[in-house]
Amino acid sequence: MGLFDRFKTKKIEGVDDTMYLTLREERRITKENTKIIKEFERQKNRKHVTEAEYLTQMRDPSNVVEFDNLHTYFFTEVGTVKAVNGVSFDIPQGKIVGVVGESGCGKSVTSLSLMQLVQAPQGQIADGSIRYQAGNGKCYDITKMPKDQMLKIRGKEIAMIFQEPMTSLNPVFRIGEQMDEVVLLHVEGATAESAKARSIEMLNLVGIADEEKIYKNYPHELSGGMRQRVMIAMALACDPRLIIADEPTTALDVTIQAQILELLRNVKDKINGSIMLITHDLGVIAEMADNVVVMYAGRIIEQGTVHEIFKEPKHPYTIGLMKSKPGGKLKEDRLYSIKGQVPNPINMPDFCYFCNRCDHAMNICSKEYPNMVKFSPDHLTACHLYYGEGLQEQNQKRMQNNQSEGKE
Ligand SMILES: Nc1ncnc2c1ncn2[C@@H]1O[C@H](COP(=O)(O)OP(=O)(O)OP(=O)(O)O)[C@@H](O)[C@H]1O
Ligand code: SF4
Ligand SMILES: [Mg+2]
After folding, report:
1. Which of 136, 238, 142, 259 is nearest to 187 (CA)?
2. Which of 86, 233, 328, 383 is the most exposed place for a label (fewest CB within 10 A)?
3. What span, in angstroms and rounded, lies between the C-alpha atoms of 350 and 343?
4. Mutate to test the pocket of ligand 2, among 372, 385, 391 (most ligand atoms within 8 A of CB)
5. Could you tell me which residue, 45 or 217, shows the higher pLDDT?
6. Closest residue by Cα to residue 113 from 103, 99, 127
7. Beta-bridge partner residues of 73
8. d(Cα 322, Cα 100) in Å, to the nearest integer?
9. How far is it, in rounded angstroms, from Cα 358 to Cα 365?
10. Is 207 left (phi over 0), alpha (psi -120 to 50) or beta?
11. What is the rounded CA–CA span in Å between residue 309 and residue 325?
């Protein structure tokens, strides 16, 4: 039983941020939150944790990461935001896994959970595990790893490239100083000279021609594309096994975008690493990814190989995403948009989250959350259209339509 489950019985009634919360209700929520958060933090800050407590086994040794029923929550004063609510998927060695979904669906929180960088104390991994195949041959459950051990992996074996490099680079230090620091921190026996040599080598690898000059520049002296190259060079400095790229090209113009994506693909092959590529842009996914994970309101609603997802998307949300992609085969002259909004993250329903926006919604859809249906070993979707009562209802509708068409 997860830690959060122990507190589940104490349901906080009347919590709904669409309604006015009285001071008393707010106080009650804060009190409950303090208790829950204290317990999570106590667990995380335990001293002398033995390795056996966070050692585990990969389900499939060809994976570098396995998310297994991950739940990451934010305990806010208006209620619990279930940002990631039971997410399971794998990142195979040497592959690019694209994670798509609309703003706020939990893409970044999933990746931050993997880095143990969720904004604490409000943000906590409430349940599930993240298995990571480390370079030393051991397999760790990151959700149980103590902070000091995580420091050995973060930045060295798992590196992150953020959307906006200007917020990640420190404006008061030269590029070289910031790059050297990464090498000095993570590479055993590194000296000032070897760190500089490595930084220059990495700048060169990411296609920066005058690397000696850039090494001495401040971040504001570089263009957006150059800064993103520097971020990639920094991420690569310690030969990571996995790169998390969270919207790496959103802040860049289209031509630079293409160059950066090409660069990412090349460096992945050079280091034989894996990439978790988070993006809104289906075009980027089609170009880059091997596998795709589609998220909606904190859960995975469809996953599969890029071929399967693009050739035959199954979930009405994924189908809508494909239709709303600019440059697609449009029959109409206007771009398709998915009507409606994501439900309130604090009061998620116990039935399909996409129900209020779905053109195919049936009776069952507003009663039960759909199970995952398998179309191939890799292709799965959570939708009532494809099994049980929902499938019967669909068939009946189809028969009725056929009959009425026959009569006409
Ligand atoms: N520090 C926080 N406190 C409270 N809620 C948070 C916090 N950080 C994220 N959330 C909530 O978690 C949910 C998931 O956020 P996340 O940043 O993962 O979305 P995303 O899919 O990365 O969106 P985007 O595409 O806009 O980057 C959102 O509902 C967000 O409001
Ligand atoms: S479960 Fe029902 S409402 Fe949800 S996506 Fe499928 S058809 Fe639409
Ligand atoms: Mg994000």
Report:
1. 238
2. 328
3. 11
4. 385
5. 217
6. 127
7. 82, 124
8. 11
9. 10
10. left
11. 14
Average pLDDT value for the chain: 87
The rounded percent of the chain whose pLDDT value lies above 70 is 91
> Would you call 74 exposed, middle or buried from its count of C-beta atoms within 10 A (0-12, 13-18, 19+)?
buried
Report which ligand 2 atom has the smallest distance to the Cα of 384.
1
| Element at 16 (helix H, strand E) | none
Q: pLDDT tens digits, residue range 211-252?
A: 999 999 999 999 888 898 898 889 888 889 999 999 888 767
Q: Residues 369, 351: contact at Cβ < 8 Å?
A: yes
* Confidence (pLDDT) at 20: 63
Residue 354 Cβ < 6 Å to ligand 2: yes
47-97 per-position pLDDT tens digit: 888 999 999 999 999 999 999 999 999 999 888 999 999 999 999 999 999
Longest dimension (CA), the chain: 85
pLDDT score, position 9? 46
Element at 179 (helix H, strand E): helix 175-186
Alpha helix stretches (DSSP H) within 294-361: 306-311, 316-323
| pTM of the complete model | 0.89
Q: Write phi, then psi, for 277 (nearest 5 degrees).
A: -105, 110
Within 13 Å, how many C-alpha atoms sit on residue 349's CB side? Answer: 14
Asked if 126 and 71 count as a contact pair (C-beta separation under 8 A), the reply is yes
